[in-house]
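User: quick one - fold this with iron/sulfur cluster bound?
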Amino acid sequence: MSHPTHSYDVLIVGAGGAGLRAAIEAAASGVSVGLICKSLLGKAHTVMAEGGMAAAMAHNDDRDSWRVHFADTMRGGQYVNNWRMAEIHAKEAPDRVRELEAWGAVFDRTKDGRINQRNFGGHRYPRLAHVGDRTGLELIRALQDHTIYLGVTVHMEHTVIDLVLDQGRAAGLLAYDRHRGTFQVFKAKAIILATGGVGRAFQVTSNSWEGTGDGHGLAYRAGAELIDMEFVQFHPTGMVWPPSVKGILVTEGVRGEGGILKNNQGRRFMFDDIPDNYKPQTASDPEEGWRYTQGDKSARRPPELLTRDHVARCINREVKAGRGSPHGGVYLDIAWIKEKLSGAEEHIKRKLPSMYHQFKQLADLDITKEAMEVGPTTHYIMGGIRVDGDSQMSTIPGLFAAGECASGINGANRLGGNSLSDLIVFGKRAGEYASAWAKEHPQPHVDEAALAQIEKTALAPFERGSSGENPYKVQEDLQVSMQALVGIVRTESEMKEALQRLVGFNDRAARVGVSGSREYHAGWHTSLDLRNLLTVSEAIALSAIERKESRGGHFREDYPDKVTEFSTINVMVKQSGDSMRVSRVPIPPIPDELKQVIEEQKS
Amino acid sequence: MISEATFKVWRTHPGGDGTLQTFHTKVSEGMVVLDVVHRIQAEQAPDLAVRWNCKAGKCGSCSAEINGNPRLMCMTRLSELNLMEPVTVEPMRTFPPIKDLVTDVSWNFRVKKGIQKFTPRPADAPDGTWRMAQRDVDRVQEFRKCIECFLCQDVCHVLREHNKHEEFIGPRFLVYAAQLEMHPLDTADRIPALKEEKGIGYCNITKCCTKVCPEHIHITDNAIIPLKERVVSRYYDPVTKLLQMFR
Ligand SMILES: Cc1cc2nc3c(=O)[nH]c(=O)nc-3n(C[C@H](O)[C@H](O)[C@H](O)COP(=O)(O)OP(=O)(O)OC[C@H]3O[C@@H](n4cnc5c(N)ncnc54)[C@H](O)[C@@H]3O)c2cc1C
Ligand code: SF4
Ligand code: SF4
Ligand code: FES
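Assistant: Sure. Structure tokens for the protein plus iron/sulfur cluster:
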């Protein structure tokens, strides 16, 4: 085969926050680095992040420390997190944020000129470094503008189709160039997957088109283990109107700045349902909640800032009970703060500029004057590739994973702001350990026959031509099915039904056809994305059936409570022959000193 | 609102040329142009090439010329357009075509690499951090809102009509340079390069770039003019010149 071939010491798939941070670290260690991404550089999903990145720098409240951040993360994750990752994350995030400033990032400032930190759901103290409501843009641009001067070779608009192993070790991969539709072979001593999330498996999502679970699929097909796939985060506040923008995120920052949730009777329903373990930290009345959002350290947070899973379910309940807004959401009101602040309109525009524009442009609504309509949207997957907490190596030697496609730090539910910090903490570690691995190992052999097989599968849709199934239609039907049957509220019977339907979708996916030239062919791209979407959908459904309890982002109507038996395991899926095997893996016991940290923060 | 509309979308042919292809399609309330393109893709032209990512005006991927105006497709609502007439959707014309609505914007990435990178002064505090007041970063934060949609590059006549890609970096990268020059921590000096290699002199302040910027960055007033002033005071201002002679 005569495809163009590229060789690197470290090859990174994905140029979001995690991939770029890994590239910087790897390049700094002196190895040769290649970076592949589906979009143009700087466009990855990370660019959309709004609210901020969590790091216990204690600028706005000196009671904060890694211990509190760690305990918050574990509580949010309902204690099924990889505690080692939660520990590393809490300890290293402050340094990772500070170094962004050395690379040109410009965060919002405190009065004494340091990085300003904001309140966010589930974080005890103001902890999110931010830039208005466009923190993701700042992160990706700072990393991008640093990376481009480091000699990293970037292959933009290339899509990885499958990985190739050499005697069980990661060896290379086959990708296609989206422009020309030609195949490209990549060989590497170490490969880092940083491919982001899976939101596109659902109908209503805040994710960009790239979120098709490619890294999950690539790793799975190569034989790696995926864990926690039942834990999908539905963000409580997505836009619900007009239909074409349904799912687009409304940042939690709106609530952090004092925004409140109301039903169609004008009731602030979040005060009606505060879980016991959060009661000591939650405001007892609206006045206290307001003071909290304005930085009063003696006040406790309003119930709107409880964890996302809880807020999403409360909204779901209001809508189902007929107390929703006209378009099937509830009201999120930030305009009300004019009762409290003079110059509130300007304040809102300055603190939440992109939200202001987003509603003005897409919904004809002025958030400084009217309440928004919002409802839950598929946002993030806690589950993903199982990795070693320190090195980020997956269960396949030489294959690493970082960012949203890796699993562990978040447990059953991610706290807002913990993803961006996760990207830079574990992106760095993945880059560091992958380089070390590359230095110690020879270039593996990439088997031509394996490449040929991947190519053949990839071209099959062209063989079938336009008489085959329409790939867009299969994708859409899959999304509808997942949304309806494996969404916010789950039951065994519905999920079994989803698995049944998946069999049908798999058959249809095997029949999709496209015609025309391979150049920039969106229909072909969609056909190939389908494989990954189907894999993650099955993994989510199977894992969700296995976890017969409710915990964090995973809520079962047929098992509405937490069950002790499940507090010590992660659900794992792995390829076995042609089918997916699900099992339970025990969580290693947490060391005493970390246990103590959790206990001391429980008051 | 009407429920059907006609769109004329640019399609390239093998070999490089292209024509507008007419599509009749259903439309509904709240739709944006990108939705229409996606609907056409899903129902009528599966191989139609279009770039997009966030569908929320945040990534700057979906730039195109809608009825001749450079816009983001995901932020252009149909209610802003006259649907009694066909709506044309064409790629950015300043960049070489790849396919349909997708153009080759790689030149922009090369240009950026040629601008001297951020070079901060030594840290202010022992923990390696700096102190900056919010009012000192406001100006830079405006420039950092840029989503690299390249619409300003598309509309700038120096690039579009005069093809000065080799001599002029265009408004986007003047914003980038301004951001670095006005960054409170930066110590590098890009003024000579802006004058000699980056072609700041080509800009004759027509402000077309500012008008199309979806992030409402005051490209000319806040970035280009202050940079031009720096160039002038360095090279042409008699007093400065005199002082420089005695230094
Ligand atoms: C609207 C929104 C707001 C958010 N706000 C916040 C926030 O305020 N704080 C926070 O902490 N988190 C937030 N999140 C979550 C956070 O943004 C994401 O979890 C995070 O950005 C994921 O980063 P990543 O580096 O893992 O992957 P991504 O940024 O998703 O990047 C994935 C990369 O992989 C590439 N890729 C994927 N598949 C392939 C393939 N097959 N071949 C080649 N390349 C491939 C893509 O092209 C891309 O470059 C938000 C998410 C959304 C949707
Ligand atoms: S103001 Fe200058 S940079 Fe902007 S479009 Fe006009 S000539 Fe180009
Ligand atoms: S300056 Fe404005 S128009 Fe130009 S690339 Fe940036 S966001 Fe786009
Ligand atoms: S798709 Fe991101 S700006 Fe339009």
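One thing worth noting: Chain A has three domains: 5-233+379-440, 242-378, 452-582.
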